[in-house]
Amino acid sequence: MRRTPVLVVAPLAALAAALIVVMLAGAGGGARPARPAAPGQAAAPVAGPPSRAARWLDGRPGTLLAAVSADLGRLSAAERAGAPGGARRAGSRLSADARAALLGPPPPRGAGRYRAALAELARAGRSAAAGRFRAAGASLAAGESGITRATAAVDAPAAAGPQGGAGAVAEPPGQ
Description:
The protein is mainly alpha-helical. About 60% of the residues lie in helices and about 5% in strands. Helix 4 packs antiparallel against helix 5. The longest helix is centred in the C-terminal third of the chain and has 22 residues, at about 135-155.
């Protein structure tokens, strides 16, 4: 019985965790208090308008990305269990779901990096499905790194404005 290399497991687990964290963080849309709270009373949060990134992650692309993440988890679990047949099936699903995600809408930022990462994950899935686990490991590492960077760019916080720019409050020196 042929075992899949350990090189496949660590990157898969890291990507699955990173994707889940990014998707959950992006799904919030931001909250702000409805009104100032009275003393001893907590303010009720009101959801602010969702950002483009949150809408992208909450929509069809987020669903497609979640399928890719689930496939990575299945591939990792099959590898850890020493089940090459399961790893091949998971690789086949990964390849199909990564190609489906490639056909979906691109993210608001980092579309090129996102598409390159999905193409690499599709290649990894094809390699795993064919039983070429060493080649799959190299493609998984590249694809996971790229998809993590792309989803982080989508969910990046807004940049702060320049100090003293529009909206700044002028205060006298010493205060």
